[in-house]
User: Fold this.
Amino acid sequence: MTTRVDLALQKYSGHETGIHLLAERDPSGNQKYLDWGAKMLAAGQALAPEIADVLDLYHRFRGQPYVHGRVRRFADRVHPDVYTYRPQDFASLRDHLIKLKRVQDRKAKKRERLYRIEGAVEADVVHDSSDLLVRHVKNKQASVHYGLGTKWCIAMLREGYFEDYDAQNATFFFFERKAKRGDDFDKVCLMVPRGSWAPGEDDFIAFTATDQRVGLMRLAHVYGPDFFGVLQRVHAVSERYPGSAIAQVYAGTASAEQLATVFALLGRGEFTRVHAVDATLEAIACNDAAPWSLLEEVARRARALVAAAMRRSKLRIHYHRRGRAGSTPEIVRVIEAALVVHPATPADARERLARQLRRRKIGVEDVRRVDREGRVGVQYDPPVRDGRWRAHYRRRLRRSTPKQLRAWADSLERRAARARKSAEKLEVAKMEKLAKAKKKCAAAAKRRS
Assistant:
């Protein structure tokens, strides 16, 4: 190594300070870039610190394709031999390497945001002995934090499994060995179903770190005879713990503060599944404790929240929970129906909502609250083509211009033509099927004779 420094000093005299700096910062470990850096320095392409920075980037990205805009061209790469770059190529090489660094930094920041836990980690220690620590995990942040290194679905930051269980009022307790043994029982998740959920299930459901379900006797064999005493404390804590805010919202018994908290979680994108977002919005609108200010905010932001959930889940189709898609998302009709029967809705707003529902062909008298397996919601009958809707079409005829009526008539003619064509195809298929059946019967009769 000393020889390379001496050779560079002899070859490029007058640049001793810069050459020593390049030798100290050479990223290769054996100063194999030193002669090239000294050549750039002697050619006056840049000062020694800048050349050293370029060599750091080159050592990191050598062999990788250049970035042209946001597209990488694999036929054009950073050459693995730095000595192929001449002094006049220095500026171009530096620009390409800086682009590669920026792309990598953007990806690193995106990855950091993806796995960063935001919010407080809420967990209480239930049992603490010389060899075992048991925590009561109260929120998703705690589940992700203390479930690190496991395959539990509730420990996935960007999935909504914890919210699903939390909405069903289940409680979670994490068992963790203080002295790791490197097996599946270093961390164990114990779930306690509560209320009417999961009838027929055991009182305790346990999963190892690899998400394999195990029995309590197996855990007692692993953790020792004190395990059943720990279970008694776990059961007592679970019984005393009030239902989570999401569970209270789903049950229709949440307070105004709990409703505001859950709605804030929706706004921050904590619910990653589309069905969880619209089900929670519907449940909030069906809680009597919800103030009108919150209900107005729910109605105003419902469409945007569901659309954001669709983008997060990368759905390529429209999400409609009740089947047929229309020009208005189903969640808007659901929220409007829930607000029509909500006791906190002012009279003028109730009249306005009723008119909107009638325009959507939903009768206000058909709207009613229901209980969907422990979750409050609203239900309404599908529109019926009776006198009310005939009157609607008569009003449409009176209010339309001649141009609109002609366009409507043309649309009906096209639909009628398509229906006639479909009917003709069905008739031809029916006749062919009948002819085949007759031919088959004739052949059978001939064989019998």
About this structure: The two ends are 106 Å apart (CA to CA).
